[in-house]
Structures are given as structure tokens and as C-alpha cells.
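Run log, item B.
One chain of 249 residues. Sequence copied directly from the ordering sheet:
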Amino acid sequence: MTTQMHLAAQYLAAAGISFVEKKDDDSHTNLGFSVEKGTLYTRELDNKSIVLSLSYDLFTLEWNDAGTKNILRLDGTTHAEVLQWINRMVSSSNISVPYSYDIHYELPYQINDDYVFKLQDVSALQQLKENRILAHTILREFLDNNKLNSEIRIWPHHFDTGAFTSLENDSGLAIGLGMAIPDIISHQYYLYISGYKNNNTINVTDFNKLSLGEWKSKGFIGAILNVNGIIKSDGVSFFEQVMNQLITK
């Protein structure tokens, strides 16, 4: 279901590319996550109260236009049918520019017009939602506790929940942190955090062992903690431990 949701999220990213002012850091493509609704959602489209969202609970796309909601059930729907539906929604909302499914980054999966979305495992989809909720609440508490300012967004390329911020002290430290989907670093969803000084990633090879998580120095430089079985306080403690060592480096 991770693959299904990653692919479905690209419709939202393409809406950002089509209808949101371009940003150099690609943040016009990234997505918000609603803990209360269990949905991914775009920024406002075409400078209007229009948002395209993706529901973990219902496995649906939702076109929200100033309080009016249109819903497309993804289960059994082809890629071509999704594009047709979005274009109908764009036309009904009187958006003057066309919707273009033109992703400027590579994904680890292929999609064509005949690709059919399948709700293969409802319980797995619910677990993915819980992972997103856990990541978001961990990041929110960690950032708030440390008076750090950052959006918490889902980046459609790697499909990670992420934040990036600089510490407002003399350390010169910036940190990137979040939750990644399974990849070559880990076969499970995992929290990650890296530190940066002068735009260079901080080397962690001589850091002290963590009580939660582990340091990584190949492929990814920083620390990770598998999400499976942890609670919010574990994640916050993990980020705190890593940041404390990064500050002293």
C-alpha cells in the first residue's frame, strides 16, 4: 500500500506543479498532512480556496473547492480515469491553466494509463496512516519543545515526512529530520535526522552510541530509528539525543 499511496500522492504534487507559484526549493509540490482527517493535501491551488487531498481512511481523492467536495474512489480506477476526473474538476472550478501530470523527478515505480489502483490491504493502509500521525506528532513536539520553526511537510519525491530548521544560537547548526518510507537504508519506516554546518553534512562516525536508534555513515549520514513499536516519547527522545551530540560537534 505504500506504493499505491506514493503513486496517488503524485496527483497532488502535479497539482502543485500546475497551479501553485514555483519555489526554488520545490516546496510548491510538497503536501500537508491532517492528523485529524488522515489526509494528505496540497497548498491552495490557483490562489483560490481549492485543495486536492488524498484520504488514507477512504482511499479516495477529494477535490475541495470553497466548501464543495467531490470524491473519486481510487480502488479499481485507472491512472487515465484519475486524470480525466481531475481535469473535470479543474474545469468545474474555472481554473484557467490546464492540469499537467508532469513530474520532474524519478520515482521507483512506473505508471501508465492502464495502471489500476487496488485497495489490497485495509489494515496496512490504516497502519500507514498511524505512521504519518506518529511522525507528525513527534516532529511537532520536538520542534515546539526546542522553539524551532519549520513546516512539517510530505515531499512527494521520496514520500518522507520532513522538517528543516536552523538553531537560533551560536552553534551554527541546521538539522533535517523526519520519517522516511522503506528504502535501502531500512526495510521499515524510520525516523531520520542529520546535522549541517556551513552547508556540509556533519560526520557522525566518532559519535557516542545512542540509547535509541543508530548512527549511519554510508549512503545516509546521520541517525535513524525504526518506527515499528515506538511511541511518541521514544521519537522525541531520539531526536533530542542526536541533536545534543550534533550541537557539541
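Observations after the first pass:
- The longest strand covers residues 190-197.
- Residues 124-248 form one domain.
Flagged for discussion on Thursday.
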